[in-house]
Amino acid sequence: MAKVFIYPATSLILSDLVARFGHQPLGAALSIRERIQTAGVESPPLQITPEDPKRGLKYAAVEVPSGVRGRMAIYGPLIERAEAGVIVTDADFAFGCMGCARTDELILFSLRQRGIPLLELAYPKDEEEGVAFVAAIRRFLAGLKEGGQ
Amino acid sequence: MTQKVRIAQIACGPEYSGVQKEIYDAAAAVDAEIFFPDIALADIRRAADEFGLDVRSADLKLAIARAMALVEGEVDADAVFIATCFRCAEAAIVRNELRRYIHEHSNLPVVSYSFTERTTSGTLLTRMEALTTIARRRALLAREEQAGITLGVDSGSSTTKAVVMEDNAIIGTGWLPTIEVIKSADDVVARALDEAGLSRDDVQAMGTTGYGRFLVGRHCGADLIQEELTVNSKGAVYLADHQHGPSTVIDIGGMDNKAISVLDGIPSTFTMGGICAGASGRFLEMTAKRLGVEITELGPLALKGLSKNVPMNSYCIVFGTQSLVNALAAGSAPEDVAAAACHSVAEQVFEQQLQEIDIKEPVFMVGGTSLIEGLVHAMGELLQTKVTVPRHSQYIGAVGSALLASGYIREE
After folding, report:
1. How far is residue A43's CA from residue A47's CA, in Å, rounded to a whole number?
2. Fewest Cβ atoms closer than 10 Å to its Cβ: which of B4, B70, B247, B344?
3. Does domain B141-229+396-408 have CATH number 3.40.50.970?
């Protein structure tokens, strides 16, 4: 089983596909759950505190907007843990949606820099492309071994 | 119990910056509630096409769709708060265009703000208070004449001012540097009452504004405790005798600046703040001190100088002072340095704040700094328009408070 970062990180469909084919999806839910379950923190709605943008300084400089650094405090550690990644570009909002384009650019760059196996594919436009889309993801995940080799 | 003012939040990033709770807290402190306009996925797709601003960030597309839902009446709100991350260019474009769009196509009061992770509810409080006042107290703000005997106190960051008004005229004034907030207020009230030949018992109603408004208001038993954005707007159009139609009010304060687009005496859009004290009256105070002149002499001195002879345009008061010291050390004339300091402050307010509101003539400058002629001149040059300073402009907050407080006079 490999740890697979999913993009869009909020995509439940992608998360489910990765889990269904026997790997551990790394997405937004993991980090948000961690924060929401932290007792004593009172920072609705996501329990992200002003400390998170400061932790995000590890991934982006201080002149980068706080929203980008706060998001990177969520996704940066997941990217570091990832052993593989599935990237879906131009996804429909309903498939999974990330709020900030600058963060998206940084996430994708960081993933590519890691040198881990990555599958990058465009969101399907019709049923035929949809079948090929799922098959491609399945093939990629089936080829991943323990540790993403 | 009064109904909560419903403020629609249109934003990108506050929940990821850890400041959403600060926004909630600021709204709750003025008995308002923040809500997010509820829209469908199809609305976002339509908004992206129809609004015509092709942004990449999905949260900004959502912001555009929410603004359109408010303007089209699909969602009801009393006011709008637009917030995006400081230093994000894409968000700054959207924030500015949405503010303009909502202002032009609806009657909703709007405030826009760019936050960092350091933004606190205290920073947002005055803005939220102004939003709720505009939404909740339109009847109070409609007052155009002062009646009876009223007292207004403006407890500012640099100076405390008081005026006594009777039958629509100012009959007593007091002005002192703010040292101990309550004592300074007591002293200016005593001066104003003394000049008016009245005692505290003669005062039928009292209003307070400025940073110390809550403390002074509670101490004096004020009938009205009100933030300075609405009070100064009201005071400006009252003193300038321009209570109807559009106008712009600029108040360069000791600690922060206000730029307010006013319609019929009520703010429609406004900005408040400043990145650094380099763009505030405090910098001019420091300049006067370094030049060895009284702050009252700085304006006339600046009018004799040429700002372009001295390079000075720092956002930071420390670097600004450095430019000032360097210029004097290089042999620059004090009048040129004074002019450059005025130009620097005016330019920063112009660049940082006046771009966020719609400048509509006439333009009024108010507050203590409006008495610095060099600053008014520099602002007029930048705006390419005549800037009017109403009589008693340094008492603007106190006058606005006294005017509005007369709505609280109980009939005998």
Report:
1. 4
2. B4
3. no
* Residues of chain B that touch chain A, judged by Cβ-Cβ distance less than 8 Å: 12-21, 24, 41, 44-45, 55-59, 62, 84-88, 90-91, 115-118
Give CATH for domain B5-136.
3.40.50.11900
Task: Report angle CA B65, B66, B70 to the nearest 5 degrees.
Answer: 115
* Residue A74: inside a domain: yes
Tokens of B78: 């009393």
Tell me whether residue B383 is exposed, middle or buried, using C-beta atoms within 10 angstroms of its C-beta: 0 to 12, 13 to 18, 19 or more: middle
Domain count, chain A: 1
In angstroms, the separation between the Cα of residue B119 and the nearest Cα of chain A is: 9
Model confidence over B190-212: pLDDT tens digits? Answer: 999 999 999 999 999 999 999 99
The segment(s) of chain B belonging to CATH 3.40.50.11900 are 5-136
Chain B residues with beta carbon closer than 8 angstroms to that of A74? 16
| Peptide bond connecting B362 to the previous residue in cis, omega within 30 degrees of 0 | yes
8-state DSSP, B2: P
Contacts of B44 in chain A (CB under 8 A): 93
Does A38 lie at the interface with B, CB-CB under 8 angstroms? no
∠ Cα A89 A91 A93 (to 5°): 145
Domain presence at residue A111: yes
Whether residues B117 and A46 touch (CB distance < 8 A) is answered with no
For residue A23, being part of any structural domain is answered with yes
User: What tens digit of pLDDT does each residue of B344-353 get?
Assistant: 889 888 887 8
Residue ranges making up the domain that contains A126: 3-144
**Boundaries of CATH 3.30.420.40 in chain B?**
141-229+396-408
The predicted model gives B150-155 an average pLDDT of 96
Distance from CA of B50 to the nearest CA of A (A): 18
Residue A66 in contact with partner chain B when CB distance is under 8 A: yes
Q: Does A104 reside within a domain?
A: yes
> Can you list the positions of beta strands (E) in A15-136?
24-26, 84-89, 118-122
pLDDT the model gives residue B278: 65
